[in-house]
Amino acid sequence: ARWTPQSPRLPPWPPSLEPPEPVAMDAALCRELLDGLSRLVAGRMPESKGIPVVDVFPAGAPPTPGEPTTLVCRVENVFPPDVEVTWRLDGVPVTRGVTHTHYTPTADLAFTRFSYLRAAPAAGQVVTCAVTRQGDNSSVVALW
């Protein structure tokens, strides 16, 4: 017996399907877009960012209005570890009596940071802890 190479006898293209020519053109366009976008983003790593979760509370027993106390601003879900923590008392920036901790890694691959404010807020005064990520034009705010 002798083997003769030939194309298989396939049934005709079903009329309800898109003809192969436009599909081939779409595939070529997709390849061009993929190549162009791949060159554009080559060497760039997408950066994941966590939205900080902020909470303010007294360090010890509930404070007496007008008495010195330490307020804690806990900032969680920080990634990357590059945030600015600021305090305000009735809308006025406060820098005296403020200390910050280093970033502490967490099990979920983010970071936590604490900031402390030693102050004596009077009854009715609003204390604000604001957290801003580098490069962002918005802050996450917690009130006490």
Automatic annotation (TrEMBL):
InterPro entries cross-referenced by the UniProt entry: Ig-like_dom, Ig-like_dom_sf, Ig-like_fold, Ig_C1-set, MHC/Immunoglobulin
List the SMART domains.
Answer: IGc1
- What's the protein called, per UniProt? DMA protein
Q: Tell me the domain of life.
A: Eukaryota
Residue span(s) of domain Ig-like: 52-141
